[in-house]
């Protein structure tokens, strides 16, 4: 029986699970007719994840939330799965890069993207800080990838899946060619990953954004405060990472 | 042979590995003489973690960074470690709560605490959003803990260790008793956890913050290469911050944000010639006067008022016809006052929401340091442009009386009832 994943279909956090499922030969299906902001507000959904964030995986043993935790679960369903490493130190390095992808890459991309998309207050100084931290993180990733094809070992692991999905939001929304060209090894890595058959099956064709996501106007002072409140609220229901 | 952990003492992320080691019977030692900002900048350190962040664990098979990954590694060193659960679904739930502790709890606390330390730009709307998100996460955690002693199963797991360490920073720095009392199950959980012998051995006595960590606005940012400076800043902060809380600060901050933020310029208002009017004295008088307000507080105000050092302004909301829903209007005004937090040292304000039925009128009175509305307020608080601002002419008795009425919340005000009166002080 397929495991059911509750989430929208273009969510990068959903991709993590679906790509991991492809690699592990596990059957995961997206729930039908999921509607963000509606389906995840029902009492049934909130019982699965009290925050109402997606994705959530329904398993025979009950629900799991947090996309990285779900991906790990899916990877473990297939015993001795090479995408989870084969030794204690490999596990550790895979987890190290999963956490790096989350706390350094995803967090700073989110801090750059969500305010621009109008989900949270746009504050130029905060954006500047986020971009400089992101560059620092990409710089560190770039040096690691200068001498490593994959994040850990000599094949694709769960760390690569999660890193690629997190980079994906940046590449399609914010990080133009002129921004990423400073990090050539990250570029090489990202494009070779999204062109793997298991990835492109889930993500489709990926195109780098030609411009930084424009600011959704919060410029009209008349509507600002209301809009801002609404946006803060929306920000709070944004999909979980 | 012991595994060597590179980090300063008092770092909550190092606690994760050390507590896990206690539970698992693994020998982990902190490196000797670690100096934040120095030891983690050496080429050897950067080889272990290209970002130069702590903690890093040295293992016989090479280094591991990211504190959760280190804690997991330590837990796995003990075969069939109950900290790691005993079934696929238990693993999954442990990892789910580890990730929740990281992306929801730790992020919210970090976005609240670090800007206040002065190591990152302090932006009130960003703080407001961080606190709201944190409350939502704590609410969800509270619900879960209402009928679970531990996060997963019936004993302590790695998820509890990581959650507790992340909550720790909040409890000792920003989350006062009045803040956490909204989440009684989280409180019960946290205090149970930090009093477990294995946790207590590493973390020591934990004391909840008595006040939210004060904004270190005027401090020079600490340069990571000169660890003397944070100490100076700390000394100055001691006046406001609880003493015992001041110590682990440098490590905690440096751990995440060694990258020096932009220096904060001194506020130009601090450079104005000194005024005989002390804003805090007025605020105290305003707050403490319970009887005979008109004579004591308002009389006192005009005695203190220094037109050379301060100015008074009326404000009038430009879009009163939009104020059709009472609580929306009230929220709008509360939001404005929150965003004015950056001017706490330089301003006093009264905001009246007027009328007994919609549309409500919003009018206010503000006292600002200096003869004009401070430029930084105009630049950073967008609400300012939503109001018409008129300088009060204090030689005009009618205007002066209007000031009195607004300070006093006089009702009826200009012939109408007050829906609410809010004070910024």
UniProtKB/TrEMBL annotation, chain A:
InterPro entries: EF-1-gamma_plant, Glutathione-S-Trfase_C-like, Glutathione-S-Trfase_C_sf, Glutathione_S-Trfase, Glutathione_S-Trfase_N, GST_C, Thioredoxin-like_sf. It holds the Pfam family GST_N. One of its GO terms (molecular function) is glutathione transferase activity. Residues 87-211 form the GST C-terminal domain. Residues 1-82 form the GST N-terminal domain. Belongs to the GST superfamily. Probably plays a role in anchoring the complex to other cellular components. EF-1 is composed of four subunits: alpha, beta, delta, and gamma. This is Uncharacterized protein. It comes from Dioscorea zingiberensis.
From TrEMBL, chain B:
Residues 1-82 form the GST N-terminal domain. It comes from the Eukaryota. The keyword Cell cycle does not apply. This is Elongation factor 1-gamma. One of its GO terms (molecular function) is glutathione transferase activity. InterPro entries: EF-1-gamma_plant, EF1B_G_C, EF1B_G_C_sf, Glutathione-S-Trfase_C-like, Glutathione-S-Trfase_C_sf, Glutathione_S-Trfase, Glutathione_S-Trfase_N, GST_C. EF-1 is composed of four subunits: alpha, beta, delta, and gamma. Residues 87-213 form the GST C-terminal domain. Residues 226-252 have a biased composition (Basic and acidic residues). Residues 265-425 form the EF-1-gamma C-terminal domain. Probably plays a role in anchoring the complex to other cellular components. Keywords: Elongation factor, Protein biosynthesis. Residues 213-272 are annotated as: Disordered. The keyword Protein biosynthesis applies.
